[in-house]
Amino acid sequence: MAAKKKIMIVVGTRPNFIKVTQFRRVLAGHPSMEMVLVHTGQHFDERMSTVFFEQFGLTPDLFLNIGQGSPNTQMANIMLGLEKAILEYQPDIVLVPGDVNSTLAAALAANKTGVKLGHIESGLRSFDRSMPEEFNRVLTDLMADHFFVTEQSGMDHLLKEGHKKEYIHFVGNTMIDTMVAFSSQIESSDIVSRFGLEPKQFVLMTMHRPATVDHKEGLTQLLELIRSVTKKYKVVFPIHPRTVKKLREFGMYDWMNNNEGLQMTDPLDYFAFQKLVKECKLIITDSGGIQEESTFLGVPCLTLRPNTERPVTVTLGTNLILPFEIPVIMEKVAMVEAGTFKKGIVPPMWDGKSTERIVQTLSKIL
User: Which of 30, 43, 119, 208 is catalytic?
Assistant: First the structure.
């Protein structure tokens, strides 16, 4: 009997975990292939492991436990740990999702050990060189042998960059697979009632980009925005510990804490957070993945950034890219309220079957 083809999937951060939850289930139906899941530990705390072990039932086979450090230190440690793992396991292909430092480090490790590389979420571009993720995306695609694409813009960029069409696979979005697979668990989360919220009567906010939350000017603007929105709506804001630290540093935390219209919370587990996405009236964010989740669910999303690497969420979906200007933002909030905000549609192949398409492709190419 022929030896099984080995697939090594490398993840390192919470957004990446969400992109690979269905591989083990799908591969169970393909006895000619097996996988090993490597968690680099780029993000690690108790909440992260709860996401993995309990909610997704997704235990990593190998945990590199690289710990904290500068991006260079983290990436060097990931590469050293992965080189050892690759030599030991001898995978036929290494799969990396997304655009974080673990993605690039794993791509380099695969490239330098002569192993095929597949990039999940390939071809996305913001063309914004102030974003570290943009370099990670571009460099990973430079080294990839196979490109798994979520949206048409990814196809267009890769072809323009000179990659051959036969290696580019339009498969859809594996993050949607997770939303579909766990829809009943998301539905049964009690987060809305626990926070005393009325469905479709609250605003969900996520802000984590250093440009917004790491300096006084950005935080002052954020407080002004919250003040404007909470005049009318309750705002739920899962807040990163780093942001809390900065708010305390600049003496702004008490104002946030005393605003009765604001519900601040620690970062939430996946099911609870997705329930809030589904039930909120609109989202105000500077994040990446939530632009896709809101588009899938048909929830209006105002993204306060100069650009997006996920343009299909704007051209087809419910996402809008806006400058951080409070009158402009509040004008769009009023449109949502009046029912005149765009409706949006779900992009092609965002149907919960993207992982299956990737595995089908792997069964042909390996």
Answer: 208
- The H or E element that residue 322 is part of is strand 319-322
169 is an active site residue: no
Q: Where are the domains of the chain?
A: 5-172+350-365, 184-338
pTM, 2 dp: 0.95
Torsion angle in degrees (nearest 10) through CA of 5, 9, 10, 13 = -170
Query: What pLDDT sits at residue 46?
Result: 66
Predicted local distance difference test score (pLDDT) of residue 47: 65
* Level-2 CATH architecture, domain 184-338: 3-Layer(aba) Sandwich (3.40)
Nearest to 180 by CA among 351, 356, 358, 357: 351
For 124-154, the pLDDT digits (tens) are 999 999 889 999 999 999 999 999 999 999 9
Architecture category of domain 5-172+350-365 in CATH: 3-Layer(aba) Sandwich (3.40)
